[in-house]
Amino acid sequence: MLNSDAFDLRKYMQRHPQSVAVWIALLALILFGVLRYDNFGGSYNFGSFLNYNSMFIVIALGMCFVIITGGIDLSVGSVAAFSSVIAAYLSPYGIEVALPLAVLVGMSFGAFNAFCIIALRIPPFIATLATMLGAKGAALVISGASTVAVDWGSNFTNMGMNKALGLFPWSIVLVTVVGIALWIVLEMTSLGRTILAIGGGEDASKLMGLKVNRAKAFVYIISGGCAGLAGVILASGFGAGQPLEGVAWELSAIAAVVVGGTLLTGGLGSIPATVAGALLLGLVFNILNFENGRGTISFSAYWQMVIRGMFLFAVILFQTRMTKGQKSKGASA
Amino acid sequence: MSMTTSEITGKSMLQVLRGHGGVVALVAILLFNMAFTPNFFQLQTLFVNISQVATIAIVAMGMTLVIATGGIDLSVGAIMALAGALAPLIFLSEFGTAYPVLGVALAIALPLLVALACGLFNGIMVAKLNVQPIIATLILFISGRGVAQVLTNGNLQTFSNPQFSYLGTGKILGLPFQGWLAVAIAVVLYLVISRTTFGRYVLAIGGNERAARLSGGPVARVKIGVYMICGALAGLAGLIVVAINSASDAARNGSLMELDAIAAAVVGGALLQGGRAPIFGAILGAVIIQLVKYTLLANGVEDEVALIAKAGIILVAVYVQQARKE
């Protein structure tokens, strides 16, 4: 079931009109930043921006899959926090042990979500809300409610601190690989087709004989795994497992996915546009920080939440108008 | 497919739980406390629990109405923080100290109006723009608390204002004022649901929104009304919490309240698909949630473990309710 149109740029643009707007906005903001601030395009800002945002990109990737099926995963922030603690405890054994095990832990939270949603038929937002509480509680219990220092002697912190080719943090390299893999799954495999079909209509997909439950389990497990990976990046980049981190990460991820043009009603979504959405959100805050630095404005940290909410509001307004236009024109498509 | 006996008994047990699960749980918790919690049957314990239950119950009743239309409101905690942050700002302002009575009146009225406006915003997003309730209310969930923190610069506002504090510390016939308030609200809402056309439409929308719309019902107006009631009740709860503490902390006021409220509504018998609005059930649910919290706390269970227990309660309650529809 190979779909050769998937990487055809013109067809891609036709199918995802909003993502074109996101890419343009992204380029415009980068241009604005480079022209306005001295160190904006410098390798330090470049590296730290990518390193920090790699966590949000990877969480948004998993969230994108979940939202395409018409679901939601509110547990990602707490799962990332839990995994960061696990990764910190495992850091003496090196990244080759800590990374896969922490991702596996994230996946098992995802599997629990999938079990509640598919087998117990609990609505996704309730199931993942409960997991959010449970994972947060568990992270606080195993860490004794404080940060857990990583072992600096092992190679664990290389991923968050060192750079490939002296420019790209290893975290973003890894996340890029994950993103490409997920893109291929979504666009070129029958599993990807099923995931898109579920969002279009779950009952119809079942009647067509698609393996709906398997695909749903897959998206929640992937989302959990992505959150686990974000946790590893968190622990590696900050040198500690952080049980208290991850608050409101699910919101950043949902916002990024929505900005990227994925319909919240499911059935349509794009991996590259989600990445662009996450980068755009990150860039807005990066630029606000630079403005703060110049002293033209002074935003306290609390403004971040307000701006994030307004951003989400603007995007939702934009999307409701877009989908109205698409419904009339794309009903037959 | 033949049913084994274990399946049959499992089913009927589930049915018993579904019908009277809340009461069964309440009795179980009370029995446990009688046996294990020291000093459980004392007036002090009763007062502490009533004043805590009242805030959960007030929010849970609004949530019950929203859930009855098939919606959800994640922004209640943020609205509590916002209303709670506004009140001291008003009665501690120059105007508020110059005219203390008017100051306190405004410190109650204005935050409630703001909370009502938040509900209006949620309602318009859901009813007019057709945004799913989770996402629509996520906007205020994020930015509402942010606005509260911006307004107070993230500072804890402490005060001493007996008139305002009556909301949280006053007593009528020896029982906390907010307990009476919660009961009064419950009676009013019960009458609204059972006796008015508005109430009938709330249930009709949750039962079958398309049918309600096709039969010419004012679906959008009723939905907006429900979110406004929920917002206003959350604002009231925010004021009560501030009054109890004689302090307003925008970071903590109403934090995770959306979970307590949803859990209380569901434990009380609300169906997430909509169509039922058990108002007094929400109070029962709030009592259970609060007693579980209290029981864990009084028996020395750490807060973190209590979080996990709460997650378990929500899952079990929704699972038991969920099976009803099938």
From TrEMBL, chain B:
GO cellular component: plasma membrane
CDD domains attached to this UniProt entry: TM_PBP1_transp_AraH_like
Presence of the UniProt keyword Transmembrane in the record: yes
Main location: membrane
Pfam families (alphabetical): BPD_transp_2 (PF02653)
Keyword line: Cell membrane, Membrane, Transmembrane, Transmembrane helix
Subcellular location: Cell membrane
MF GO annotations: transmembrane transporter activity
Transmembrane segments: 21-41, 47-67, 74-92, 98-121, 133-152, 172-193, 224-244
Topological category with respect to the lipid bilayer: Multi-pass membrane protein
UniProt superkingdom: Bacteria
Protein name: Ribose transport system permease protein RbsC
Organism this protein belongs to: Pelagimonas varians
Gene that produces this protein: rbsC_6
